[in-house]
Write a structure and sequence with these properties.
- This protein is an alpha/beta fold.
- It has one domain: Alpha-Beta Barrel (TIM Barrel), CATH 3.20.20.
- 37% of the residues lie in helices and 15% in strands.
- It has 15 helices and 13 strands.
- The strands form three sheets. It has an eight-stranded parallel beta sheet. Strands 3-4-5 form a three-stranded antiparallel beta sheet, with no helix packed on it. It has a two-stranded antiparallel sheet with strand order 1-13.
- Helix 4 packs parallel to helix 5.
- The protein is globular.
- The C terminus is likely disordered.
- It comes from Alteraurantiacibacter lauratis.
Length: 400
């Protein structure tokens, strides 16, 4: 048995759980009715409406349908039926849920559905207002425990401007790019200033799986079919694979050694094979070095696996596969998460799931994965943690 502070490195604050005034209290009056706000519908439910478009459900009003659900969230598994309290978006209720799960800190990602608007000025204002609310109102309730992840717009110039603004505030530890909708692709030189600023200010960059219109349309054809449940397995890899390979192919990590990347909710088990394949391609490239001698040479000096262990981190919830690959990931690159309160979440059973998948491992390794690695990455002092989990670790049981 060990006692240690748990830091969950992938948790959520979605649109449906945000307070109604996140944007109306912070955006200039000049935006008027365009400003995002919940609007009650004829059936009594409410939708987030912004600039004449629906962004999705708001849980501050009861949903009109009852009966069995096609998908359960953590709240369903935890016996919470009334979502109108907006628990994830109410700091004191969220902290109570964290205490119930014996988790000291949450790294909190914002809405995984995109801020949808063709108006760049409006888009920038929406991102800035959310980030200001996150750091000025929400996280201030418990700044050592509620670790907000800023949202960056998905275009280089807008992302750079928002990161510059955030860096001046000094409260941001990590910023997220909704990588599946980012344009242009990462090899474009327009991103270079963002990479440099991230290095200079020490803010960690994350990629997180997101939900956007193209994904939902792809699922529409299969709605009502049990088989659609399995399609989520490919959505995670599809969104991450291109930008992940781009980090190595175009020298982004090698040119920016101070850049730290977290690939969150990525399905960590597929990553080792991809890195192994990149190492092989690196070998094949240098095998033909004489071909490149008069063509500018080969800029890729370091092996992808070396760059990976120096600069890339990954989160996971429960994965026996990932636990079998800890030697590949290295002692500090894996970050445990509960994914509260999403459908894939293990809340409120985090301690039981950690014991199930890590009970056979060495205590020091487990301490690192469930909190120590996050403390080093984000500069946390876990000695201050007043919530500590008791984990049955160190037995001879095989991983489940």
């Amino acid at each position: 048995m060990i006692e240690t502070a748990l830091v969950s490195c992938d948790d959520h604050l979605d649109l449906n759980m945000l307070p109604a005034d996140v944007w109306t209290q912070r955006m200039a009056s000049s935006w008027g009715e365009r400003t995002p706000r919940p609007v009650e519908q004829e059936n009594g439910s409410a939708l987030w409406m912004a600039d004449g478009q629906s962004w999705g459900f708001w849980s501050g009003r009861p949903l009109p349908f009852k009966g069995p659900k096609p998908i359960h969230t953590a709240y369903d598994r935890g016996g919470i039926e009334d979502l109108s309290e907006l628990r994830a978006g109410h700091p004191h209720l969220r902290l109570a849920d964290m205490d119930r799960d014996q988790v000291w800190a949450h790294v909190i990602f914002g809405p995984v559905t995109s801020i949808v608007t063709p108006d760049e000025a409006f888009m920038r204002a929406c991102y800035a207002a959310y980030n200001d609310w996150l750091y000025e109102d929400f996280c201030t309730a418990a700044p050592d425990r509620l670790l907000g992840v800023a949202m960056l717009p998905p275009h280089p110039e807008a992302a750079l401007a928002e990161l510059e603004r955030l860096a001046k505030g000094g409260k941001c530890r990590q910023a997220n790019l909704q990588i599946a909708v980012c344009e242009p692709r990462l090899e474009d030189a327009r991103w270079n200033r963002l990479w440099r600023l991230l290095e200079e200010c020490g803010i960690v960059l994350s990629f997180h799986v997101t939900v956007f219109p193209g994904v939902t349309k792809a699922f529409d054809k299969y709605k009502g079919s049990p088989g659609a449940t399995f399609l989520h397995a490919k959505m995670f890899i599809e969104q991450f694979l291109d930008p992940f390979v781009d980090l190595f192919a175009w020298g982004i990590l090698e040119k920016h050694p101070g850049l730290k990347i977290v690939i969150a909710e990525c399905g960590a088990g597929w990553v080792p094979w991809v890195v192994e394949e990149l190492d092989y391609r690196h070998h094949r490239l240098w095998e033909c070095a004489d071909y490149w001698d008069d063509k500018g040479g080969i800029p890729h000096q370091m092996k992808p696996s070396e760059l990976f262990k120096r600069q890339v981190y990954g989160t996971f919830q429960q994965s026996a596969t990932t636990m079998a690959l800890t030697d590949f990931w290295g002692p500090e690159n894996l970050l445990w998460a509960s994914d509260y309160p999403h459908p894939d979440s293990i809340w409120p059973n985090s301690v039981a799931k950690i014991a199930e998948h890590m009970g056979h491992m060495q205590a020091d390794q487990v301490r690192g994965i469930v909190g120590g690695n996050a403390a080093k990455l984000y500069g946390l002092d876990l000695a201050k943690a007043t919530v500590r989990a008791k984990l049955p670790i160190g037995g001879n049981r095989a991983a489940a």
